[in-house]
């Protein structure tokens, strides 16, 4: 499977989007990434909090989960939603950025997209020290795949994420 093909690490899954924090699939596709590997895994496993680590947890749409290392051109304009000056300029409050209410966050993302941002940097709602990034599909040509590592129940980063979420070993 190619990196940009459906299910690949650089694929923007627009047709499956609509419920995500910054989704606006009628206008753009999003690729949700994180700067810390454990943050990316926590985001994927959060729905399994308090369960047991069974093999099905590590699959989506029939494909195995993997951790991809993606590199982005330094010239990419990302709106930093952790920057107080940016929030003040846009008259946004941190509580309105961190909400799980998609009726609030999706219009914010659309406004940044229309102002030519290539994506958004924001803090994880699981751990504020983790940085998540939402990339808009206009950056696809500037993304490079540096590597892919399959997730296994034995991996140290996956075990750390599972422990944080209370997912017991099988």
Description:
This protein is an alpha+beta fold. Helix content is 25%, strand content 22%. It has one domain (14-165). It contains five helices and eight strands. β6 (119-123) and β7 (131-136) form a beta hairpin. α1 crosses α5. It starts with 29 loop residues before the first strand and ends in a 5-residue tail after the last helix.
What's the SSE blueprint?
Elements: E1 30-34, H1 37-45, E2 59-60, E3 63-64, E4 66-72, E5 78-80, H2 84-89, H3 94-98, H4 102-114, E6 119-123, E7 131-136, E8 143-150, H5 156-165
Parallel strand pairs: 5-6
Antiparallel strand pairs: 1-7, 2-3, 4-8, 6-7
Task: Give a quick rundown of the structure.
By secondary structure, this protein is an alpha+beta fold.
